Input
Amino acid sequence: MISIKAHINGSLGYFLLAALLGVLLRTYVVSPIPIPINYRYIVHTHSHIALLGWVYIGLTSLLFHIYLSNRNLDRRYKRIFWFTQLSLVGMLLSFPFQGYALFSIIFSTLFLVASYWFTGFFIKNVPSYIKKTHSYRCIVVALWFMVGSSVGPWALGPIMTLLGPESIWYKLAIYFYLHFQYNGWMILALIGLCLYILEKHGITMTQKTFKAFLWTVVSGMVLSVFLSALWIEPSWILYFMGGAGAILQLLALWLLIQFCYSNRSTLYSIFTKSQFRVLLVITLLLGVKMILQLLSTLPYFANLAATILDFTIGYLHWTFLGVISMGLFFVLEYFRLIKLTKLSFAIYLMGFVFTETLIFYKGVVAWMRWPLWDGYLTYLAVGSGLIPLAILLMLWQSNKYKKKPIVKQI
Output
């Protein structure tokens, strides 16, 4: 018998570790640390454990829990799960000491194999009647985006061998991977899970509306990958295609908001007041993210984002810590797999807003050539400490939470 709560606690544990590494990185630039570390290697560890340990394990555990937990597949799933854990622990023990080198590349490759294995396992075993639902169609497209994003990591080896890490293709491969991980896999999977919750309560998009939404969001995500290439000042065609992708994503969000608004009275009965507030915050953050994407289609702002690293870091954290992580909190809370109290969410939101404000402020300072006040880095390091504090509180409160997880297939 699989303990889904244990798996989710494990994913939260990875998030806690990634957050603590983030605090370490920001403390490292403020004051010397007695333990010698390689800053770049810790950055690699921080990003891999956050993306693959927290979000990937959280999402795949949820997908198994709500779609496959009643189909006597525990033994087969455990093999995939522990193989994935092996690759994650391997990355955790290799990246801090060697960065991208032999062992970290081996374990990263094993993780890609694990993600392919899970995708095939999931698609093969979901009941055929569920495959007709809108939520499943969203999730399966998200999984294919995840598989497709791996083209980026696979391309890094040949690029480094033939062109070197200073090549523009090296950065483009990384941006390709991040784009389809964030937008294609993670955000679309979360949307699919939210549609699942609504379908479970009898709220379903019409076929016409869903078809319009899915084609709009998918084409928007595909076209907006060109936004990641605008820093090389390409042909106007790529600006146009990237802009079209950003507009299509905004349109898809608008269709989703319209659908939810037309069913608002039922939504009030499905979610608690605190859950509904979290959902509103996530929607606001997602809207701002998409507006920033659209803004970056203008050559001036595309160049600004490319030359001022703080804007890029701020945007990535806005998407990951804001939209994706809060979205995952929301879904896990609904299924009673974590306990998201007002206090833990308030601390997390405070840490997010405080650090994002400081990061974007530093970008504006570089843009406007203003002086940066003394103690800025110290405030940033202290503010970053609120994130692991909130996660630690969630873990503690979740372990005390006695209600059984919700398992009810459509």
Observations:
- Residues 179 and 225 are 6 Å apart (CA to CA).
- The mean pLDDT is 92.
